[in-house]
Write a structure and sequence with these properties.
Shape: elongated
Distance between the termini: 95 Å
Helix content: 55-70%
Structural class: alpha+beta
CATH architecture of the largest domain: Up-down Bundle
CATH class of the largest domain: Mainly Alpha
Mean pLDDT: 84
Order of helices and strands: HEHHEEEEHHEHHEEEEHH
Number of helices: 9
Length: 459
C-alpha cells in the first residue's frame, strides 16, 4: 500500500517574498508612526519670494538710482546759482606835477560781492538734453528690471519643476530598485535549487546595480534642483518637499499681440532706441557747431566802473544768466546801461564737416540696429510660440502613453487573476505605468516652462 507524498514545502523564493513583504510593512508602519512632516514649498510661495532674489534686488536698486538722477535733472533743469566776490587794496603815492608841485594820491580799498544765476534756456542746452537722456535711462532701467524679474521667474519655474520631476524620479528609481532586488533574490534562490544558471544570477545582479545607479542619479538631481532654487531665492530649502504640480492643460496667448508688444517695449528694443536717440543728439550737436555762430549777448545796468545788474545769453550753448554785483569801496559813479554783442562763424572747416558726416553715419547705423532688433524680437516670439505648440502636442502624446500603460497594468492584473500571469508581471506593469506618469509630469513641466518663456519674450 503506497503512502501519499507530503505536500511540497514553500520555495525559498516564496519564503523570501513573504519575509520581505513583512519587513517592508513593519518598517513602513514604524516610519508612519515616528516621522514628522517635512516642510513644504508650493510654486506660488516660491514665486512670491522673487523680490528677495539677489538679481532682482540689484535691478531694483538700479531703477532707484535712475529715478533719483531723473528727478535731479528735472528739478534743477540746468539751474546754477553761484556767489562771487573780490577785494583789492592800492597804496598811497606821491608824484610831481608839471609845475613842480607835489601831488599825493591817497590809498584806496575796493571790492565787490555778487550773485550769478544761470539756466539752460534753449531746447539744445546741455541741461535739456541731459533731462532727456535721464528719462531714457530710467525707461531702460525699468525695462531691465522687468526683464530680470521675468528671467528670475523662469528660473524659479525651471528649478522648482526640476525638483518636482526629480522627486518623481527618486520614487520611481526606488520602486525599480526594490523590484530588481526581489528579482535578484528569486534568481539566487532558483540557482540554489539548480533551476537557474549563473548567467541569470549575474544578469539580475547587473540589473540591481543599474537600478542603484539610477536611484543615486535621481537623488543627486533632486539635491541639485533644491540647492539651485535655494540659491535663487536666497532661502534654506533643506529637506523641503515640493508639493505643487504643473497644470494639466495650457492655453497659448495671442501671437500677434505678443509680436506687437515685443517690437515696441522689449528691453533690446528700448536699448536700440536709446542708442538711436543718443546718436541723433550727437548729430544735432555737430550740426549746431557747424551751422550756428558763436554768439554771446550781454546787458548791464549799473555804475560806470563795475557792478550792477547784468544779463547774458549764449546762443550756441543755449544758456542764459542773470546776476547782480555790488561794488564795495571806491567811487561808484552814475548808473548807466551798457550792452555788448560778440560772435564768430566758421566759414570753412573740413574737420567740422567730417564730424557731421560721422554723426550722420552713426545715426544710420543706429537705425539699422533698431530695425534688426525689432526683427530679432519678432523672430524670438514666433520661435518660442512654435516651441510652446510642440510642447502641447508632446503633452497629448504623453497622456496617451499613460493610458496605454494603465491598460497594460489592467491586463497584467487579469492574467494574474486567471493564473496565466505572475506577480512580477504586475509589478513590471506598475513600474511601466509609473514611468509613463513620470514622462507625463516631465511633459507638463516642459509645456509650462515653454509657456513662461513665450510670455517672457516680450521683455
Amino acid at each position: 500500500m503506497s503512502r501519499c507524498p507530503p505536500p511540497p514545502l514553500p520555495s525559498r523564493a516564496v519564503q523570501f517574498r513573504t519575509l520581505t513583504l513583512g519587513l517592508f510593512l513593519l518598517s513602513a508602519s514604524g516610519v508612519a508612526q515616528t516621522a514628522s512632516p517635512l516642510p513644504s514649498l508650493t510654486l506660488e510661495d516660491a514665486l512670491a519670494r522673487l523680490a528677495e532674489a539677489p538679481s532682482v534686488t540689484a535691478a531694483r536698486l538700479s531703477v532707484q538710482v535712475a529715478q533719483q538722477n531723473y528727478a535731479a535733472a528735472r528739478n534743477a533743469l540746468g539751474l546754477s546759482v553761484s556767489v562771487n566776490g573780490s577785494a583789492g587794496y592800492s597804496g598811497g603815492s606821491a608824484s610831481t606835477a608839471a609845475d613842480g608841485s607835489t601831488v599825493n594820491t591817497p590809498s584806496s580799498v575796493s571790492g565787490s560781492a555778487g550773485v550769478q544765476v544761470s539756466l539752460g534756456l534753449l531746447p539744445w542746452a546741455s541741461s535739456q538734453t541731459g533731462l532727456q537722456a535721464s528719462a531714457r535711462s530710467l525707461t531702460l532701467a525699468e525695462a531691465r528690471l522687468s526683464e530680470t524679474q521675468a528671467s528670475t521667474r523662469l528660473n524659479v519655474y525651471a528649478q522648482y519643476l526640476a525638483a518636482v520631476v526629480a522627486g518623481q524620479d527618486v520614487a520611481l528609481a526606488n520602486q525599480t530598485l526594490a523590484f530588481r532586488q526581489r528579482q535578484q533574490a528569486v534568481a539566487q534562490a532558483q540557482a540554489d535549487l539548480g533551476n537557474a544558471t549563473p548567467e541569470s544570477v549575474l544578469s539580475a545582479g547587473a540589473d540591481v546595480l543599474t537600478a542603484q545607479a539610477s536611484a543615486l542619479n535621481a537623488a543627486a538631481d533632486l539635491d541639485a534642483a533644491r540647492r539651485n532654487l535655494a540659491a535663487l531665492l536666497n532661502v534654506d530649502l533643506t529637506d523641503t518637499v515640493f508639493s505643487s504640480q504643473p497644470p494639466s492643460t495650457f492655453t497659448l496667448p495671442d501671437l500677434p499681440a505678443l509680436v506687437t508688444r515685443a517690437r515696441m517695449s522689449s528691453r533690446a528694443i528700448l536699448q536700440a532706441r536709446n542708442d538711436l536717440a543718443d546718436a541723433q543728439d550727437t548729430l544735432n550737436t555737430q550740426q549746431r557747431d557747424a551751422n550756428l555762430p558763436t554768439l554771446n549777448a550781454s546787458l548791464r545796468y549799473g555804475p560806470a566802473g563795475s557792478g550792477g545788474l547784468s544779463a547774458n545769453l549764449n546762443v550756441k550753448d543755449g544758456t542764459a544768466g542773470v546776476g547782480y554785483t555790488l561794488p564795495l569801496g571806491g567811487s561808484a559813479g552814475a548808473d548807466r546801461l551798457s550792452a555788448s554783442l560778440t560772435g564768430s562763424y566758421v566759414v570753412y572747416s573740413p574737420g567740422v564737416r567730417a564730424q557731421v558726416s560721422a554723426a550722420q553715419a552713426s545715426v544710420t547705423q543706429a537705425q539699422l540696429s533698431l530695425n534688426a532688433a525689432q526683427s530679432d524680437a519678432e523672430l524670438n516670439v514666433r520661435t518660442r510660440y512654435s516651441a510652446a505648440q510642440t510642447a502641447t502636442i508632446n503633452l497629448k502624446t504623453s497622456e496617451t502613453q499613460v493610458q496605454v500603460a494603465q491598460a497594460g497594468l489592467d491586463a497584467a492584473g487579469l492574467r494574474l487573476s486567471a493564473g496565466t500571469g505572475t506577480q512580477d508581471d504586475v509589478t513590471a506593469a506598475q513600474i511601466a505605468l509609473a514611468q509613463a506618469q513620470r514622462n507625463l509630469l516631465q511633459a507638463r513641466s516642459t509645456a509650462q516652462q515653454a509657456l513662461v518663456q513665450l510670455e517672457n519674450s516680450v521683455y
